[in-house]
Structures are given as structure tokens and as C-alpha cells.
Design a protein that fits this description.
With 93 residues, this protein is an alpha+beta fold.
């Protein structure tokens, strides 16, 4: 996984958390290309979306990482060569 988060030094087990994320299974698109999903929002909204994607039989809940705090509201995403990004902002209720 080529995603980096700027985690504060006050967070325990930073190295083990990042190692767990790198070892997680990757969801494949219908064409077999790996797709990295990122959910950003409130803990409740993220949990609700994970549950909805499970209910729709898109992905198992257990394949998601634990919820991770983003230190100082900073997040860096480093794409692989040739990758693109699309963003959707949707309210959950």
C-alpha cells in the first residue's frame, strides 16, 4: 500500500499499525485491477458506510482496517505511477 498518514508520535504502535495496513488484502475491480478505498469522515459515518458496503455484498467488514485517527488533520496519499483518483462526497444519515 502506498498510502502514508502523518501519525503523531503520541500514538502507540505506529509502526505495527502501518505494517498491518500494508499486509491487508486488496479489493480487486471487475477487471482484476487493485482498487484502494479510502473512507474519511466521522467515526460513525465511516462505520455506517463500511456496514452499508457489507450489506450490499461489496466487501466484508473484516477487510477494512481499524479506524485510524489522522494526526493534526494531515494525510498524504502517494499514488503509484499512472494511477488516477476520483472523489465522491456523500452525506450518510
Amino acid at each position: 500500500m502506498n498510502t502514508q498518514t502523518l501519525l503523531g508520535s503520541d500514538l502507540p504502535n505506529e509502526a505495527s499499525t502501518l505494517a498491518e495496513l500494508s499486509a491487508m488484502p486488496t479489493v480487486l475491480s471487475p477487471s482484476g485491477d487493485p482498487i484502494r478505498h479510502i473512507l474519511l469522515g466521522t467515526p460513525g459515518g465511516v462505520r455506517q458506510t463500511i456496514h452499508l458496503l457489507h450489506t450490499l455484498r461489496y466487501v466484508e467488514n473484516a477487510l477494512w482496517s481499524p479506524l485510524l485517527p489522522i494526526a493534526d488533520n494531515k494525510l498524504i496519499i502517494t499514488p503509484n505511477q499512472g494511477e488516477v483518483m476520483s472523489l465522491l462526497i456523500k452525506s450518510v444519515s
